[in-house]
Structure prediction request, 309 residues.
Amino acid sequence: MAAYSTQSALPRKLKSILKVVDGKTCTEMFEQNLRSFGDVKAILRSLEIAGLLHAATEDAQRVRFNLELNDAEHQKLMQVGEGSDWAATSHSLDKPSLMEHVAAEHYSQPYFGLSGRPQAEEQERGEALAAIVNDMSNFVLTYVPEHSFQMLKEIEDISSLEIFAATLGGYEQMVAHLGEKSTEHLRNIKSILRDRL
Amino acid sequence: MSSILQTVYAVTSAGYSALRNVSEPLSLELKTVLTLVDGVCPVAQYIPFLMAFDPLPEKFQILERMGYLKRLGHVSAQAMTGFEQSVSQRQPLSRLPRIDVHSSTSGFLPLT
Prediction:
């Protein structure tokens, strides 16, 4: 229960990682979706050494981790999950994406195609996109960890600044409730976008 | 005199830029440590949870020398002793209490 306890010594960002472990997702998937953390495999290995995770798999090549919980903790966690939004959304990858859904409700922005830009410009745009993706990933993991797995997957799937611009409205709606923190974060990523679009 | 283990670090603006900049020549290990710094926990509090990054204090020092981390302050020796005792008594890490820098009992001394 270290991931959910306010008294636990587990540092905040490690709690965020622990919260996305579901016993179904393999480490390869975590590596892809949590790239902004760096060496996710080593982090998971550390959490396993610390006794907070155990490998829950039959296939050594595609290790899946699960939380190390006793029966009472497991039951308590299930009760928390049943009443909360994330339980309904965070592991259901077949559903329409959260951001797409919000964006469709509030915005209808056109999608622009890429065409014939010089290589140097393309590289700068790629770096700007990487910076935005990194910033968004860090923000989501820090402030909305309960939705992080679903949102990070969508964030990592953003393959161009134009796609990012089209989904920005939905993202804004999703983090708006965080007040000043999100205002500053949104100002930052919008300024990167303005410089490159 | 406080030790590195008592030190609370925060990421500098140069550190944030380094995390955003994909071409930054930071090793994956250092990048990971930099990403995990939250400006609240002293170095000692990361160690039991990041054994794969041993020796961790050295990595904090390298990142500080690079200008990516800055010292915010340190927790008291007394708070550290309590924490270290809990670790050495082999308490389950999931039940390890935090060294709360905002609590008066931690004796957090900010650098001015």
